[in-house]
Amino acid sequence: MRSARTSAGRASATKTAIDLPQVMVKLLRRLRAERPAVSAGLTLSQLSALSHLEHGGAMTTSDLAAAEYVRPQSMAVTVASLVGAGLVRRAGDQADKRRVMVSLTARGRAALVGTRQTQGEWLAHAILTRLDRDEQRTLVDAVRILDRLANAPSGVASTPLASSVGEP
User: Fold this and answer.
1) How far apart are CA 168 and CA 11, in angstroms?
2) Quick check: helix, strand or coil at residue 138?
3) Same domain flag for 88 and 6
4) Angle CA(19)–CA(123)–CA(37) in degrees, nearest 5?
5) What pairing do the DSSP bridges indicate for beta strands 88-92 and 100-104?
6) HSE-up of 101 (CA within 13 Å, CB side)?
7) First-residue to last-residue Cα distance in the chain
8) Dist CA 8 CA 158 (whole Å)
9) What is this structure's pTM?
10) Where in the sequence is the domain holding 3, given as residue range(s)?
11) Residues 11 and 83 in one domain
């Protein structure tokens, strides 16, 4: 009996693991449509980098890449485009002159604030008008749970997901 429950639980987790990224991408695309003009041309990667700089303060491109789970070379391209747009600045580290720190500019902060406000207003309206009270409470819990998943350590699963797809 326990084996059947374990198999059913694994199949459910596997289906959720497959469906969740698709739903998240769909929601992110919908939120992107709600961006204000000040940030309309920015990619999700650029907005995420700006957000990390806002929360974490000035950091090196390598540190920013690690925070974003991307290669330093990819982040260097992102940072270069943000510098070109005047959203971040580069400056030498006072403590270690060999290091170059990236920090948010006032224009970068304004792009984040405008984006969050516009997207937040749309999403709050959608939550209040499309979800009942129980669904709203569930969503509050889901946000906390998804944050835990987003902060889970990297690694390869001991059992491939494909092996449990289609299990009863």
Assistant:
1) 7
2) helix
3) no
4) 110
5) antiparallel
6) 15
7) 13
8) 18
9) 0.71
10) 1-26
11) no
Cβ-contact 100, 61 below 8 angstroms: yes
Are residues 98 and 53 part of one domain? yes
Token code pair at residue 107: 């224009």
Cβ neighbour number for residue 104 with a 10 Å cutoff: 24
State both tokens at 165: 């797809």
What is the three-class DSSP state of 98? Answer: coil
Q: Is 66 found in the same domain as 5?
A: no
Residues 14, 47: one domain?
no
Cβ atoms of 52 and 67 closer than 8 Å: yes
Contacts of residues 153-159 at CB distance under 8 Å and 24 or more positions apart, as own/partner, are 154/69
Q: What tokens does 2 get?
A: 């326990």
The packing angle between helices 106-130 and 133-150, to 10°, is 140
**pLDDT in tens for each of the 168 residues of the chain?**
556 667 778 888 899 999 999 999 999 888 888 877 666 678 888 999 999 999 999 999 999 999 999 999 999 999 999 999 999 999 998 888 889 999 999 999 999 998 889 889 999 999 999 999 999 999 999 999 999 998 888 775 555 554 444 444
